[in-house]
Amino acid sequence: MIAPPAKKTRVAVLGATGAVGQTFIRLLAKHPWFELAELAASERSAGRPYAEAVHWVGDAAMPESVADMHVRACDPRDISSPIVFSALDAAVAGDVEMAFARAGRVVLSNAKNFRMEDDVPLVIPEVNADHLGLLEVQRARRGWSGGIVTNANCASIMAVMALAPLHEAFGIRRLFVATMQAISGAGYPGIPSLDILGNVIPYIKDEEAKIESEIQKMLGRRTETRIEHAQINISAHANRVAVEHGHTVCMSVDFDSSVGAAAATEAIREWRGDPSARGLPSSPDRALALSDLPDRPQPRRDVGAGNGMTVTVGRVRSDSLFDVKLVAMGHNTIRGAAGASVLNAELLVATGQAGTA
Amino acid sequence: MIAPPAKKTRVAVLGATGAVGQTFIRLLAKHPWFELAELAASERSAGRPYAEAVHWVGDAAMPESVADMHVRACDPRDISSPIVFSALDAAVAGDVEMAFARAGRVVLSNAKNFRMEDDVPLVIPEVNADHLGLLEVQRARRGWSGGIVTNANCASIMAVMALAPLHEAFGIRRLFVATMQAISGAGYPGIPSLDILGNVIPYIKDEEAKIESEIQKMLGRRTETRIEHAQINISAHANRVAVEHGHTVCMSVDFDSSVGAAAATEAIREWRGDPSARGLPSSPDRALALSDLPDRPQPRRDVGAGNGMTVTVGRVRSDSLFDVKLVAMGHNTIRGAAGASVLNAELLVATGQAGTA
Amino acid sequence: MIAPPAKKTRVAVLGATGAVGQTFIRLLAKHPWFELAELAASERSAGRPYAEAVHWVGDAAMPESVADMHVRACDPRDISSPIVFSALDAAVAGDVEMAFARAGRVVLSNAKNFRMEDDVPLVIPEVNADHLGLLEVQRARRGWSGGIVTNANCASIMAVMALAPLHEAFGIRRLFVATMQAISGAGYPGIPSLDILGNVIPYIKDEEAKIESEIQKMLGRRTETRIEHAQINISAHANRVAVEHGHTVCMSVDFDSSVGAAAATEAIREWRGDPSARGLPSSPDRALALSDLPDRPQPRRDVGAGNGMTVTVGRVRSDSLFDVKLVAMGHNTIRGAAGASVLNAELLVATGQAGTA
Amino acid sequence: MIAPPAKKTRVAVLGATGAVGQTFIRLLAKHPWFELAELAASERSAGRPYAEAVHWVGDAAMPESVADMHVRACDPRDISSPIVFSALDAAVAGDVEMAFARAGRVVLSNAKNFRMEDDVPLVIPEVNADHLGLLEVQRARRGWSGGIVTNANCASIMAVMALAPLHEAFGIRRLFVATMQAISGAGYPGIPSLDILGNVIPYIKDEEAKIESEIQKMLGRRTETRIEHAQINISAHANRVAVEHGHTVCMSVDFDSSVGAAAATEAIREWRGDPSARGLPSSPDRALALSDLPDRPQPRRDVGAGNGMTVTVGRVRSDSLFDVKLVAMGHNTIRGAAGASVLNAELLVATGQAGTA
Q: B254 has which bridge partners?
């Protein structure tokens, strides 16, 4: 574990009353490097004590330390923290996040708005820590001292974590992805129970396109000024299932040249990811766990691995159409959302890229 | 609707106490062509009134007409019906079904034992009614006057129903299949609730291999003596989800030459299947229904279409990897099991192929 | 079955786009006595074709006959049908229903607004058909020629159906009620899936008070001018469970004098309810079914009995504290809501009490 | 926290492969006072490494320390640990537990076999720690140096935890209990998913009688030689719901003299339970937590309180039939089973009553 900094950095959460915002709060309430100093939400909530403004939906109790904090507006004039976590809806995230970056803050965003921008890093520390280098490009081009760093859609993250060792070792050319995504991925109130209890919804708005493009960017290569997307041909099928937490992703993978299940298994088993991502407060012992059981991973049984930061892979086997097929599963609101942002922030601080922050 | 025969044919159900056996009973209790004359089950149940021997698990009440029927042994000497529906487990189905065929009975089987035999038809009436012609080959080769006709695994049936129009029109070359299968597919007691409530199990024993091979056979072409399997390269991913009835199947389809979503949609919309399968008592108005809603088919909302005999298809769209992708869903214990056998039997009777039966 | 009237009566549904409104439409689309002539909903929907205005959530498909009907405003000037079914929210039901009654229409209401009014009948035809006599009082007192007839809260109805034979035979004095209510009772979108999947919510706003008071009124006795409430001391506990349809109600019942389980069972088994409620189009063969199985009734297995109009009772047994305890279960959106209103309307028509209608 | 003993006591788990056995293992694997030294199970498992013999069903991974332990027979000759936790089925628990007690071991049992015996303590440390005094009576009467200490049925424990402060303060006279119990209470494989998904089963074999009698014993008073059962008239209704962990219990309580909701709330809020139960390794900060939210406790949100050892109470309110009503909820396999036994063992050790152990 990297030694804690001499002084905690003050951080804020934008969109603090929503489901992802609540997960941020849970992860930041006792963070060794960050002090959860400010909470912000929509006009409706601003000015009220957090405990009154929020409808707390998590499984764990609300941290006592935030109950009395006053909710602020999502405006850089009302927020002084140099690092800002954004759990905002896409409808408002664009303007707000840009305002904070312009005001010199580093924004760690879950929203889709800037993910595919050329000069915005879309980062999983273990996979593409070097993409953070884009921040310099972004600052230069946009003329701000802050910055926006994004993490991907929750389903994309599960896929990329499992694919990274394979792409690094063998080069992926074609990919089939079928997801079974948890209800918490839709936020709160999110999916009405009458729609999903004992049911499958084979559709999540815009999700398949996000999965296809975000995988290409995250597995891409950084050049001086941008990310060269990985040349992987991808087909995604996104489904919603009656699971609380944990996105399950079935994949068939075709490589540049023939690769067997044993070699793929070995690559996954050996992979440790970028060294700069190790020892951070939110880093799990193993970013990727490989299960030998024939029927794993399973959301209810594996979602808690590594405090929700470990992605579990299983069923790596030969594919009769492509080279190998496998299943990956991880916690969509932790590794796939709030935890992803927090890990990105830790990496920024550890590598001195948080800038003026 | 084809006119009912002058006299009902007596039929028996083997494995009558299990979950599929119960579905057979529900479908046959008031059948216009068949008289449910005999029920058979394991030694343990034989000799007892059905109502005592069975643990009835269905949503609908047990038909009163069967409550007092005495359960017989699964032995052709104890059963006189010329048509026999087999809901037996694979562990015993092999010997029992062969004994019945040898004794001159026509066996409609759900078991996997004979499905892939060269001289055994694997039939969906709307798709490959002509495969029944194999019965003659079977009778000649095996020296029996009865016969064994099988229906496929429940997941294979949903896939083939949706693929048939596409294969007929365009020729399928490569196929991805990812299934989300209902718990009733595993029988009763089947899946323990602790394993599946709020969970996904990304594994069903032997299922993926069955799906891959059965699709190839069902979409194959009958020659004089056998079925020439369709040359489709298939990769299947099988998953169990917390749904009561209804298997959902996501597919990406590649054709011999490029086909767009509009053409694929049209082929599915226009398809009516083999004319010999129309007007049978269990034939739905539409074997295949096409939904225009963006988030359908869904098991809970579409599983009852056509009394469980209609497969609903939706989300036919372009695929960035293959030609098109789509979703199919149907009732696994009706269209995918008991109803499939009953429809096969109706076709046999209607076409005079039930032989001595 | 009572002979159909010479001419169908035109009827309207208010609140036609909501979940209960959709159930009304399903029940009325092919009704032998009623012609579903008009649909009304909020301003937002008015003027649009029904198929566009509605988000259809039912398990069965939308009846084709309503797809093109134009949605009207909930205003008696826009609606000419003499009989009006109200699926309106309590927030608006009060004014709207009164306007229709004042305009001479007979309103069959699911809303709570008028249920406990002295001159408004709260009716289950099999239980208290004679309470409809209050309509005359209501017309005289309110000076209108129409009228408002209500049905109770869904959970109250299940309880009263099971209690009616016992109260008639023995006189109930004290009652403990614990409910486990289905999600469809909360309408659509209703309960967020994150709140109820794998969970129990031991609270339904205002429900316990409704159950306690409505039971007293429904089991009460009609005098010249009002209903004398039954003198039953009631304690209700209301819970929400992860069930789609079907409210389960556990009850302990204390009588005026000691009653054993055998006598209670016999009373329930023999009960047929008010003769005027028999033979109506929506009357089930048995309003009350008694199960002998030790673990019934169960929502998923018994909710469809009598097309959703039969309440199933089971586990009638001695109680160590009161006299007997038992379990009742019925379909909350059919017998407990839309079907209840339709049955009330049928009774009004059959008994000539629909007035100017 | 009480200081750890100088030396860990060796303990064994009987029935180690079952669901409760697995929970024991999870709780004991890193216990500060106990060394999990031996695992025992049925003949079928004996002799095999634990990881091979078990089908691990828990949400958390199997502790590595037990994977290689060899499973022993449930025979005191094969087990040397002085303290033995029994997760055995009632069918075998009687003989086995008695054999261990006779062999001088202290048996902490989850089975029902001895719970209601006059000289066997049925203990919740916070509620009736003094009942352990019966061990002396038991040893004298049975002529053994070991002993059997039992914990109650999981549903009884949740009820008693919530009732203890009320009974201590006001004296309970009459009680209604309606439970909604989690599937894990039925063990593994336990409830078939087809029986409970989207369903309620209003029946658990023998459960209601257990709840009624066990509450009376646990709230009873110890005399020299036995427990004088509390004179509470109890009626229980037991239901199974589609919840993984956490039994919810609705109760109406009548006292010796009138008690209001405020006084009952205060009694619950102030209660800390027997001082001897505080500071034990498994003691939660609060044995009883009181929620002010209107819709709590809920199993999915509160079941983890106090690591599964805290029972959460809510909705304390006036009852129109008895004095007050309330809802209690706790973790059925931790506070209601394995954790209960472990806490009992800790209390025995802390108070020097573990005898030769």
A: B174
Catalytic residue among B154, B167, B245, B331: B154
Cα D159 to Cα A119: distance, rounded to the nearest angstrom = 60
- Comparing C-alpha atoms, which of C214, C206, C212, C217 is closest to residue C177? C212
Instruction: Determine the average pLDDT of the residues in B319-341.
Output: 98
User: Using CA atoms, how far apart are residues C229 and C217, in angstroms rounded to an integer?
Assistant: 5
Q: What whole-number distance in Å separates Cα of residue A327 and Cα of residue A296?
A: 8
Indicate the domain borders of chain D. Answer: 9-153+338-350, 154-331
Q: How far apart are CA B321 and CA B173, in angstroms?
A: 13
Cβ distance A60 to D198 less than 8 Å, yes or no, reads no
Closest by Cβ to A200, choosing from B198, B294, B299: B299
Return the DSSP state at C63: P
**What is the C-alpha separation between C132 and C62, in angstroms, rounded?**
32
Q: What's the token pair of residue C229?
A: 């409430």
pLDDT at B356 exceeding the cut of 70: no
* Amino acid at position D350, single letter: A
Contact by Cβ (8 Å): A212, A236: yes
Place of tokens 């959703």: C308
Spatial CB neighbours of D285, under 8 Å, sequence gap ≥ 6: D306, D310
Structure-token match 């840009």, residue found: A98
Which amino acid would we find at residue A214? E
Instruction: Please give the class, per CATH, of domain B154-331.
Output: alpha beta
At residue C219 the predicted structure's pLDDT band, cuts being 50, 70 and 90, is: very high
Selected from 3.40.50.720, 3.40.50.2300, 1.10.760.10, 3.40.1110.10, the CATH number assigned to the domain covering C9-153+338-350 reads: 3.40.50.720
Q: How far is CA C91 from CA C15, C97, C206, in A?
A: 12, 11, 14
* Residues facing residue D36 across a β-bridge: D11
ipTM computed for the complex: 0.96
Would you tell me which CATH number, out of the four given (3.40.50.10300, 3.30.360.10, 3.40.109.10, 3.30.160.20), belongs to the domain C154-332?
A: 3.30.360.10
pLDDT grade for D61, boundaries at 50, 70 and 90: confident
**One-letter amino acid for residue C69 of the chain:** M
pLDDT of residue D356: 53
Interface test with D, best of B194, B200, B201, B204 (most D CBs within 10 A): B194
Q: What is the CATH number of domain B10-153+338-350?
A: 3.40.50.720
pLDDT at C331: 98
pTM score: 0.96
Residue with tokens 């599983």: B303
pLDDT digit string, tens, across residues A51-67: 999 999 877 789 999 99
**In Å, how far is C28's CA from the nearest CA of chain B?**
20
Of the candidates B289, B178, B242, which has an alpha carbon nearest to the alpha carbon of residue A244? B242
